[in-house]
Amino acid sequence: MKIIRAKDYNGMSRMAAHIISAQIITKPDSVLGLATGSTPIGTYEQLIHWYQKGDLDFSKVTSINLDEYKGLSPDNDQSYHYFMYHNFFKHINIDLNNTYLPNGLEKDSEKACEDYNHIIQKSGGVDLQLLGLGLNGHIGFNEPGAIFEKETHLVKLTQSTIDANSRFFECLEDVPKEAYTVGIKTIMQAKKIIILVNGENKADIIKEALFGPITPLVPASVLQLHHDVIVIGDESALSKIPQ
Ligand code: GLP
């Protein structure tokens, strides 16, 4: 595991974008595992900037997102479909037919998960997985207690996640209580993983995830077992990790 310290959020975002760029340049038909949340927005902005300068070509890239709220349609401005389209896809030349997120509108949960697993298998697997980190150690929407062996599945969101994500919704009641997420097993099958952390409020949980016991109670701790993980954090998020 490599830990890269960036000065601030911009520095973190640029470093992540450099690694993703190198991935696309060396393998133009890369399968990228993408994440939502506020953490990766700067990375997407940097990639858009380099695309606009003519340095990047996304035409052969496939993207597979980690998760989607159950019950939200793609045009709901709180859905992850909406987030990805507006923060990234509409600004680059990725073929929208090659961008995937779980189908939040599928009521048959088993079908939604099977379909998504099939898409991942058909893609040949994720080359580079980008992750954020939930305050309770979740990755994707794999909440504490998540079984490491799972592929895509339906989760009940914890109160901590509902509270944390309520800042994007008009009120707490609007936050969906369930979501489809790629499982830990699938995340661990990615060839390379980048996890981004910024801000003081992530300092304790990133330390626990990287140096504490490997346990489903801290889902991100499983990353200690992956052979190619790059942690990129700003000074505040990495402040409790010794140099
Ligand atoms: C959500 C997403 C996660 C993300 C997490 C952290 O719950 N499902 O993929 O990593 O939030 O969000 P933020 O980056 O806004 O702190």
TrEMBL record:
It comes from the Bacteria. Its EC number is 3.5.99.6. CDD domains: GlcN6P_deaminase. GO terms for biological process: carbohydrate metabolic process; glucosamine catabolic process; N-acetylglucosamine catabolic process; N-acetylneuraminate catabolic process. The keyword Hydrolase applies. Residues 19-227 form the Glucosamine/galactosamine-6-phosphate isomerase domain. Keywords: Carbohydrate metabolism, Hydrolase. InterPro entries: Glc/Gal-6P_isomerase (IPR006148), Glucosamine6P_isomerase (IPR004547), Glucosamine6P_isomerase_CS (IPR018321), NagB/RpiA_transferase-like (IPR037171). GO terms for cellular component: cytoplasm. Belongs to the glucosamine/galactosamine-6-phosphate isomerase family. NagB subfamily. Catalyzes the reversible isomerization-deamination of glucosamine 6-phosphate (GlcN6P) to form fructose 6-phosphate (Fru6P) and ammonium ion. This is Glucosamine-6-phosphate deaminase. It comes from Candidatus Cellulosilyticum pullistercoris. The gene is nagB.
